[in-house]
Write a structure and sequence with these properties.
The complex is a heterodimer of chains A (388) and B (272).
Chain A lengths: L17 E8 L9 E8 L4 E5 L6 H8 L7 E6 L2 E2 L5 H5 L2 E4 L11 H5 L1 H5 L4 H14 L4 H4 L9 H13 L5 E5 L7 H18 L2 E5 L3 H7 L2 E6 L3 E6 L1 H6 L4 H7 L3 H8 L12 E3 L4 H11 L5 E3 L5 E3 L3 H5 L14 E3 L4 H11 L3 E5 L5 E6 H16 L1
Parallel strand pairs in A: 3-8, 3-9, 6-7, 7-8, 11-12, 14-15
Antiparallel strand pairs in A: 1-2, 1-4, 4-5, 9-10, 12-13, 15-16
Helix pairs in contact in A: 5-7, 12-16
Chain B lengths: L14 H10 L10 H25 L4 H6 L2 H34 L7 H13 L2 H12 L3 H25 L3 H9 L4 H31 L12 H9 L3 H29 L5
Classes of the chains: A alpha/beta (388), B mainly alpha (272).
Amino acid sequence: MSDSPTTSVGRRASGLPIRLEGVTKRYPGQDRPAVDAVSLEIPAGQTVMFVGPSGCGKTTLLKMLNRLIEPTGGKIFLGDEDVTSQDPDRLRRRIGYVIQAGGLFPHMTVAANVALVPRMLGWDKRRVADRTEELLDLVGLDPATYRDRYPRALSGGQQQRVGVARALAADPPVLLMDEPFGAVDPITRVRLQDELLRIQDELGKTIVCVTHDFDEAVKLGDRIVVFDVGARVVQYDTPEAILADPAEDYVADFVGAGATLKQLTLTRVEDVELRPVTTATVGADSAAVVAAARAAGDDFVVVLDGRGRPISWPTVAELSRTTTVPATVDQRLPVVGLRSTLNDALDTMLAASQGGVVVTGRRGGLSGVLTVESVMAAIQRTRAAVGG
Amino acid sequence: MTATAGRPPADADPATLAAAEDERDTAAPRQVRGGWRALAVQPLLVTLGVGAYLLWRATAELSDTEARQLGATTLWAAIREHLALTLAAAVLVLLIAVPLGVGLTRRPLRRLSPLVLGVANTGQAAPAIGLFVLLATWLGFGFWTTVVALVLYAALPVLRNTMVGIEQVDPRLVEAGRGMGMSTLAVLFRVELPLAVPVMLAGVRTALVLLVGTATLATFINGGGLGVLINTGITLSLNSLLVSGAVLVALLALAVDWLGRVVEHVARPKGL
């Protein structure tokens, strides 16, 4: 099928802009429309977050973009095409769709789930298999391990990753996400958010994402749309602008108290100075590591596995009781990514009752350690900046 | 030995991250499938039953009438007739109840489902013997009238389980399918029906067992089957015939139930 010009192998589609003109949804028997004449422009390659109270019509509006809900009025343009007059099934194959908990089909393997849209588009087997491999890799699942598993054998976070891979399978220019990370635990959510940021850096899709979590919107969004009842657009701006200058009291209420602290959500871990730390690889001689740590003035050491990713952080005292560095994996090791927000980092510290977190970079390798002191210093600076 | 803050951005090898996540966010353990062992018990019982019956038949002292009625050819003919009734009715039930059940879960026909379920309920709630006789007075006696009666009697479990099976499919999965660009028909055949298969097959098995049992009533409207043996046994006060008929029907029902279980086990979609 040739309805999508952007699905040829190897060519990275950057997103298409989306334009809404007076889009309206009126349900029979209700005097007020659920979505009332919304006009909005979503620039290509940007992540736009829809936030607002439940029942405000943000999800309805999202579902009208791929016409799971048919608008009763108005026009929707994808690029230059008016999609309101297209065959909805063919339209949807060009728009990635991610729902809460992934929405994987339980009777299909991970690979079969990911391959669904490419198969519908009539790709040949080889190409589908290659693409599946590539995507599982992209979302952080080892293809050899996970390809033939059924969703039941995956954790919630892994299912959500597969859900994202499936939505990206045919390289659609646009990705719609409906509360994608609502059903996973907070620590997994932070990881998935970090992954999405990384994927988006790589792919540059146009992403529209509904969330009820304003912090998530600030973290993920290039821009945020704040909706009120009837999908009235109250404010449409960058996270920084919305936090600094809420358009109405309504937005200020929604953003919540402590906007200074909200700035924590705007500051990424990579913007803050990380503390270098003594590292050791599994199986190394403990005495040498202890000596190096003492020389550097560190009271703990980060242990890396064979691939350079942190697995535990024993204290120097603990380590000096061993002869070689143990391979024990610390399940409670607090880890955040470089693109995590200071808010995430602080949360992770609190959850682990630790005074710091280990920060990993793009290969999952160690980037350094972020301490609660550096976070406090960042808060101080922000307060000084806001105050002055 | 010290970490470098801000490693050079290399293309991601995110498998490591996911692996780390594995440890925190553990997957549901795979369920052990011990089904096969349970499945082995039933055919064993049936074989034992058949063996015991054959032993009794070979050693019992029987009158001429009994011996003729319980002769290998007569018995075999009765069993074949019984199976033919069951099979014909089962095929018709499947052909009618499955498409009807699917149709009634589609939006345009959904309003009709209480009505159709009501009719099917009546079919099953009505005493089987009454149903047989009423139909016979209308359609005449014989094989096909029996089949019609059996179909009416056994359609409900298949119809209801088809509907329940499809309705219990998570609506978000249907939405996910539609959202990916699958047509309603593709969603039905690739998502809804496969996920409904276990429930549907359970209904089919129930229907089959009902059919084997109810087909014994065929004798009253000249439909043949093992019921003839039982009926003759009662009218002539020949307990050997009566018990033979009853035992054989029971063994047949058990065997059919087992076949149904095997099919359920094999046809159950992997991953559920």
